[in-house]
Amino acid sequence: MSGTERVLSGIQPTAGSFQLGNYLGAVRHWVSLQDTHDAFYMIVDLHSITVEQDPVELRANTLLAYAQLLAAGIDSDRATLFIQSQVPEHAQLGWVMQCITGFGEASRMTQFKDKSSRGGTDHASVGLFTYPILQAADILLYQADGVPVGEDQRQHLELTRDLAQRFNTRYGKTFTVPKPLIVKDTAKILDLQDPTSKMSKSLPTGAVFLLDEPRVITKKLKSAVTDSETEVRFDPVNKPGVSNLLTILATFTDRDVEQVAADYDGRGYGALKGDTAEAVVEFAGPFAERVRELESDPAELHRLMSAGSAKARVIAAQTLALTYDQLGLVAAEF
Ligand code: AMP
Ligand code: TRP
Known about the structure:
By secondary structure, this protein is mainly alpha-helical. Helix content is 55%, strand content 7%. The chain has 13 helices and five strands. It has helices at 20-36, 45-48, 55-72, 89-98, 103-107, 110-119, 126-140, 154-171, 214-222, 240-252, 257-263, 268-295, 298-327, and strands spanning 6-11, 38-43, 80-83, 146-148, 179-181. The strands form two sheets. Strands 1-2-3 form a three-stranded parallel beta sheet. Strands 4-5 form a two-stranded parallel ribbon. Helix 3 packs across helix 12 (268-295), helix 7 (126-140) crosses helix 8 and helix 9 (214-222) runs antiparallel to helix 12. The radius of gyration is 21 Å and the shape is globular. The mean pLDDT is 96. The site of adenosine monophosphate has 17 residues, from helix 1. The site of tryptophan has 13 residues, from strand 1 and helix 7.
């Protein structure tokens, strides 16, 4: 079933496996939104080449990311599931968006500052700098009403809204101004070894990868950093490690987090960690199994990708043509 409101989101094919934060903060919501919205989800491979990458790995990880979205429950009949680089309009609208973005405005993006400071600004590419502008193009091409993402994407969505409004003011109404759809409870799953920062694919020691072996998942959750107290209580400010485990367990078992916390009253951290590990493995085991099945038929994955990208392209081409026209670019007659 499709409603009239459109949602769009994307995920990078940077690692072999999604981490728990990707699933709880984003993909899980994508699955439920496809029932109520006209949903567009993509693998953003052009964003992955903003840092140095290995072509063999990128190709394999793109297929694997696509299989993981299907295994997570995205239905390619209900949602349009596609590959960003297969729709050339993304790069084309990206250029237009670069031309209306201020240099200072782009310089204020905190993810760029974080990522570029890791390797030194001299090593950061111009593509990494303009990454959020391509993301704006991704969203505006589809006239998306809502963008389901984790908390770390809030600033990029603010930029997207600003660019849409600016273009509409300068050249006439062209783009829908999208709203961020950030579900507070799971918007920021924390690193298990350092619960002051978010879980990320690029910090593998503190991340749970859904395609990890069950024993690896269990070990990581059981050795999660908590605090020196013993009381299980949901208190994200003072007890981030414990609260993170409670969030994970409550989400996988479909319960209220305060209620879960009450269940562990007087039982200590060991029981909480063990049960959280069990709940995650219960999801991850069958998930990995479905991914393996899907991966065993790459021809079918390629077919689904191409069909999804062809569907996406119809909308993208319409928006790009309108944008070019609004700008005064002369259309070819061939
Ligand atoms: P990425 O792997 O950076 O492409 O992220 C894909 C999606 O997962 C985005 O919507 C992110 O906001 C979301 N995400 C990534 N890490 C986390 C996290 N630790 N907690 C919640 N959401 C996350
Ligand atoms: N920057 C996003 C991330 O790292 C990925 C992304 C690219 C995206 N284009 C998008 C998310 C469009 C939502 C909409 O998670």
